[in-house]
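@channel anyone free to eyeball this complex?
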Amino acid sequence: MSDHEYIPKSKAAKWFNDRLPLLTLGAHLTDYPTPKNLNYWWTFGGILTFCLITQIVTGIVLAMHYVAHADLAFGSVEHIMRNVNYGWLIRYIHSNGASMFFLAVYIHIFRSLFYGSYKSPREIIWILGLMIYLLMMAAAFLGYVLPWGQMSFWGATVITNLFSAIPLVGESITTWLWGAYSVDNPTLNRFFSLHYLFPFLILGLVVLHIWALHIPGNNNPVGIDIKKPSKDTVPFHPYITIKDAFALLVFMIIFAGFVFFTPNVLGHSDNYIPANPLVTPAHIVPEWYLLPFYAILRSVPDKLGGVILMFSAIFILFVLPWLDTSKVRSAVFRPIYRQFFWILVVDVLMLGYVGAMPAEGVYLVLARVGTIYYFLHFIVVLPVVGLLEKTDPIPMSISEPVMTGGAEPSLARKLNEKV
Amino acid sequence: MSKEEKKVNRRDFLFTASYTIGAVGVGAVIWPMIDQMNPDKAQQALATTEVDISQVEPGKSITVLWRGKPIFVKRRTPGEIQEARSVNLDDLPDPQKDEERVKEGKDEWLVMLGVCTHLGCVPLKDKGDYNGWFCPCHGSHYDVSGRVRKGPAPTNMEIPKFEFLDNNTIKIG
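replying in thread with the prediction:
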């Protein structure tokens, strides 16, 4: 993958590397030519890796103390909080870690939307990323069920009942998912098993995601193809590692702020009431990171229609690289798309807000407007804007705008022509 | 040429036969892996519940647990029965006569799965716009016969299989 062949210095290292080229891989990752203009929005890949490892490590520790049984689960979580040494800390890191994971992944996704990182030749990276995102949502949902509080139980009931909307086989599928005739002990047991499995599936997909990234190399804020290695690139280590490390440090300060000062602010107090199959809480809401999709689900006054629209909202992202007709990647040079991008950001935030509110009155109207706009953005705005938009002139290289002071990117070209 | 063709045909047959047997084998192994997730014998054993209804006053209801789900047993007043039967069927999203939802001669007893047909929450009694039940999750309204009147729920609340063992006892399931 690197342009140069790596040769280990010592004889023993060479002997090993000839049999398993791990040292070559290490050298590739160290020297990996990276665009020199990557900004802080590009540090979230590293942050997400940190989040995944944090969830896996704290999760394995929690599983040593947790009991996956309908009669014991709630008590065992309280046991972790009160009796297990540092159990409160490990559990709060794990529960807030899920939120931090989603915060980072949403920034990561919107960075890709702004700078056109999903476009050719990076479609596979984008699709692998969406698969990771889907698995993240599944893992987060499964994990939220494990404490077996009221929100766990009724969240599980509502989400599994989504499948009952499927014509003919829906009821059978729901019963199959439950292993009972309602959400019950068999459901909790299998959810624990799958919750333990999914992070490792995510880890596997992350390896593919990074592998696919290292074929074309990073996109960059200017969004142009660059020669690698060249004056436009820097080696990954130490230039990017140090920048990633600094961003991670800032991220960890915010993370720690939640864990130590407001560990329950992102959760719901109803989940400290043990699960009761006879009483549904008056106001049930999913975790904040699922709210936009929940708003879309509730905006449709038809069961099957709502479920279809909610899943479509995610699956439409898979065809995004083919919906966007513009050849220019970065929104920096797309004055019209740039504005629609920010409208989409506001739209998704608004959907998240109304998803947390009761589905009635003005909130229902906002949810419907937001849902329609969400789909319009992908189905109409992206293809049409890509065809009609007059994009700004694109620099020949990353170095060019810097050399000319950044004011007139094509000036360097003109000067070169004169000389 | 004919010799070669014969060879290829024999190889094709072997491939097809191998794939077929392989597919049957894989299917035979996958099915137990899928079916193990269906309700087990212990779950199926909980299929019936007997309920004593002698303490239920007219206009009141009790909730019992059957297969992990709540069952509403409501003893309706004559006024409520009258109200349920005076509804125009064309006004119902899932048209069904009240008579079809109760046992003949036991019109006051409404025995119903207390689960919203939208996404499975438990509706609250004596709430909503139709003097029946209201689901707090996504706002479905049910009338005094448990029929959906408004909201995202597609069908009426389900009537489970049940029978009167005597005047004071019902068997659900």
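from a first look: The CA atoms of residues 294 and 355 of chain A lie 6 Å apart.
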